[in-house]
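Aim 2, interim progress: modelling of the iron/sulfur cluster-bound target.
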Amino acid sequence: MLTDQFQRTISYLRLSVTDRCDFRCVYCMADDMTFLPRKEVLSLEELGEVGAAFVELGGKKIRLTGGEPLIRRDFINLAKSLGELAGLEQLAITTNGSQLSSCADALAAAGVTSLNISLDSLDPAKFKAITRTGDLSDVLAGIEAAQAAGIKNIRLNSVILHTYNLEDAAELIDFAIEKRIDIAFIEEMPLGTMPDIDRKERWLSNETLVQELRLRYDLHDSNATKSNSGPARYQNVAGTDTRIGFISPHSHNFCSTCNRIRVTVEGRLLLCLGNEHSLDLRAILRDRGYTREKLKQAIVDALAFKPERHHFHDPEHPQILRFMNATGG
Ligand code: SAM
Ligand code: SF4
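Predicted structure of the complex, ligand included:
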């Protein structure tokens, strides 16, 4: 078992497989983005090594993310190799859903156990305004395909912004209820600088959102909050199978139960989403004397530097310059 200096057990790896994406969501990317040159990006084999080392260290869950993971060429091969690792209990993907309709069956066959699918509006024009390039109908078809493929654990992820989609939250919940899946609302995090955009002006707290939702839905605390060491606090919608998760990094500090680490697609091991501490795993992976044992030892040693907590919105703390797509959301 991997543990850090604050006695937290680390069992969950979020592994970014690309920084590229077919969408340009307004909270995630600036208008014109520069992506990493290919040689700086871990190969699928290197990503597989990181996953295998983590599971040998006692890791139980891996989430593949990005950028948009499903646009990475031969992504299915990586999913298959991770799906075969003895000891891995959950293989999850966070996706924008745009490619799901063509690959949901292959993902299910590869052993993918859960999907988080991002969806911020059911209005095609608003969806386009938020994603800048996305097409809502592709995502809706992707959700259907994932359910038809038998992937049981599906959750929608929605970022709600005051100035874009506050009035869409209820429609998204009704959609989740109809599909009998969960939905989580994520507060926008200040990752990456966007020169012409004032994130504070459009930022909406989950506290405000939940007050609005209570006017319309009968919400009750869910046991899922206790059994899940993740950052979401769940509410059941009475009379339905749907739970609503609230991920509120600003108002709810979930760091004391943090069980996760991240690896970016250039192989930076990030010990915390809201801090810059990191270790260059790519240098280890590309060293001529590479062995998996060396990689595992480096991961164990790095955990000594996992910070106690994040510092979003702490004026004393430097702003995080990496964008969410480069971090692995
Ligand atoms: N492309 C995939 C997707 O959109 O699901 C996976 C990567 S994306 C970076 C992962 C999640 O991070 C998405 O649910 C997205 O809504 C969320 N996200 C992106 N930028 C964010 C930000 N600045 N604050 C909060 N959530 C963000
Ligand atoms: Fe792409 Fe996901 Fe970022 Fe949107 S949130 S731009 S879909 S990586």
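The mean pLDDT is 90. The longest helix spans residues 44-56.
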